[in-house]
User: Fold this.
Amino acid sequence: MFNLIFFLLISTEPQILANRDYVPELVKLFDGAEKTIDITMFSAGYYPEHPEGINRVLYNSLIRAAERGVRVRIILDASSWNPNNTRKNAMVARFFRKSGLVEVYFDPPDVTTHTKAMVVDSTLSVVGSTNWSYYALAHNNETAVLIECKSLGLELERLFTDLLSLSTKEIPSMKEED
Assistant:
């Protein structure tokens, strides 16, 4: 695997997505996607009591991309040791699946996928500390980097595909509720 520092040196101006800049920049990124969006996320939150909340803004941008024909795939963590996080991720999966447009998978429960990364159109990559929970998006100090670099994008896509080959649409260790 290539070294991240190497990618930073050959990419065009990396952009820091800190704190409250993260969601608006991701929305722009997703709105501009043409072919693919692949996301690996440790923890995501769904808050039905806040349909206009920050999470929904982000999630709706992914659904809009899928409506335009962009293939949107998300791998979420399903943990044998952290059932609370798994339940939260299952709620997000149900939300996306109701759209019928976004593919959602769960990693193997015996492995923690702590990654927070995404690749858009094999070229634009975002890697950072930001989970998709309300507090991470609205209150925490978080940092991510947006890098335009085809070789980094392809390497992150390869890692995504490797994890996807081990992932399932249902959580193996828990039964999802409707």
Q: What stands out?
A: Residues 1-9 have pLDDT under 50 and may be disordered. The radius of gyration is 15 Å. The first strand starts at residue 12 and ends at 18.
